[in-house]
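User: Can you predict the 3D structure for this chain?
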Amino acid sequence: SSPPSSGEISMHSQPQFRQIIAAHPGTTFSPDTQRLLHFGAPAAELAAAANATVVVPLLQLACIEANGADARSFLHGQFTNDLNHLKAGQAQLSAWCSAKGRMLANFIVQPLVDGYRLILAADLQAAMLKRLQMFVLRAQVRLVDGSAASALVGVAGKAAPEALAAAHLPVPEAPLQVAEQDGVSVIRLSPARYLVVAPQTRIADIWPRLAAHAQPAGLPAWEWLDVQEAWPWITAATREEFVPQMADLEKLGGVSFHKGCYPGQEVVARTQYLGK
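Assistant: Here is the predicted structure, written as structure tokens:
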């Protein structure tokens, strides 16, 4: 089938995980099936996000994988953050801007053995993959859709480490650190919030273990947590609306003001140093 247009979440994103979730009691999707609304108890899920521990299928996110000899230099020259100093076991927030300094998308960037994983809004994934490929030119970089192979799960709350341990998953020690085990990555986003990236082939085992130790919750609960932590996601609806500072990206460590040029850098730098 043809790739989704901008603003559309592919039904091929995390396909096996979608099937598992759909079989969960009380699962309710939006009429267009693109948003997981809740598992039958929306009020309780929001309360758990505030006061207890939740586990959330992150179907609104997707992955692009970049590998090849020039992957680091290529992405470093495109994104707002400094990939040259990003090490294994770390993750970073970054963005890709237009020439006017407006964010086309933002990412969680995770180093892999042979490249990088870019986690971004699912409704931008196809458009960003196509656009990035246009800039590769002669660089030795291969950009591929990683969404069909990976399942993304959010775990947040006081008992999040216990829920991860019950699913036989590691717990990173500090925010924006990555712990890996048996092909599964756990990225710590903040003191009490984690993002799990697991192979689709393992999610049938991992999901029920997590759901047994945390309240399964829909996307609104995770979005509420994003708001509490001022964590921005650029989506199809907000593409090219904001320079990074309008979303406080620099305060979250998503912009380097010491690296070389990248698209929109002059506007981003002027905003930082001149305030206009």
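The radius of gyration is 18 Å. Residues 74 and 137 are 10 Å apart (CA to CA).
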